[in-house]
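Let's do one together. I've listed all components of the complex below, 450 residues spread over two lines.
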Amino acid sequence: MKGDFCMCLAVPAKVLDIKDSLGVVELSGIQRKVSFMLLPETNVGDYVLVHAGFAIQVIDKKEAEETNALLREMSGLGREVE
Amino acid sequence: MDLDAKLNEEREMAQFLIKKIDRLITRPVRFMEVCGTHTVAIFRAGIRQLLPEKVDLVSGPGCPVCVTPDEYMDKAIAYAQCKDIILTTFGDMLKVPGTRSSLGEAKAAGADIRIVYSSLESLEVAAQHPDKKVVFLAVGFETTAPTAAATVLQAEAQGLKNFYVLSAHKLVPPALRMLINDPEVKVDGFLLPGHVCVITGTKEFGFLTEEYHIPGVVTGFEALDILRSIYRLAKQVNEGAARIENEYGRVVRAQGNPAAWNILRQVYEPADACWRGIGMIPLSGLKVNAKYRHFDIEEVLPIKTEGTAQKTACRCGEVLRGIIKPMDCPLFGKACVPTHAIGPCMVSVEGVCAAWYKYGSGRFTYGK
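Okay, and this is what the predicted structure of the assembly comes out as:
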């Protein structure tokens, strides 16, 4: 998966923890370390757009789920049925 | 709402928008998207097939990997071949051709090249290898440049003395200006790149309307987002108007992300930059500024490369400007395929040629 990473992509993720501009987000069921240097005013529970390991904007939850469906398809996985 | 009802509602909305677009447009028009993720999303949803023939969607230079020139790749390879250098890079740079080889080939031949998901991982590598210089390949548009800039600031804060960047960042607005001034490129409206605008906001694109009277709509990545943006462009064309509108307001704020923009401007300054297949575009790139020049590997350890690009029949330069479609290139789908890419547009997943190759099957004829 790492080799397929495309730098133009930005993915939505839920913020689980933040401490000193470093935090943990949940991204399609996987926990990842993310920097909040570019988005200093973020709270736990927010949905954020993550790009190349950095949170870059706060978004709403619906947007998060829709973009995740697109990304799953782009990486060859099926679209999740509600 | 259950899934069937949701899909039905979306289908109806799409049909409604397409009918509206058909009515609003009374002459052939060309709308351009300048984001690799849009290129892929437009194919995935089959939007080209849904639109009336008079609406032509063309792709611009929206993939940062594709526009990174040979000379940059040659430099990256030359640095990677230095014994005391570890190169860190996003995975999609490995296959990009330089004049003689690629980073992938250099890695196979023993160069220490490490794939990272985030530029920050380079700092961990630097801390673990104090005897080596760690060079991060800083590539990408306005969305990515702040992440590299933040990494430089973080390296400074940690007191790391062996971390550097090799910058090939590109800026979208100067590229649009160049396209508009090119008489071969005729564009009636732009689908503006949503994730670039997350950082820049909409102001940076105001020149489109003020100086050129061309409309632009900031666009999201779902099928309906894209159709709604095309509808908004069609409406403006119909009215003879030129406004910058934001169809991706759920994510994009008018002022962008000022914190990210400030970090970018702390570390980088605009500089002339070379785009593959296009050439030099004034002030379309980012260079590490004087204050942080000790992080710029080209300042600390200048390196000369003397590659001469091999002449091939690749027409990526015209593809990147939206002048031709990939299937007009004699190599497309024959000598040039994703597993053996000749041109950069076939290398990246989000390259225009790769998208046409992957999604065009069954709908378009090529490679015959």
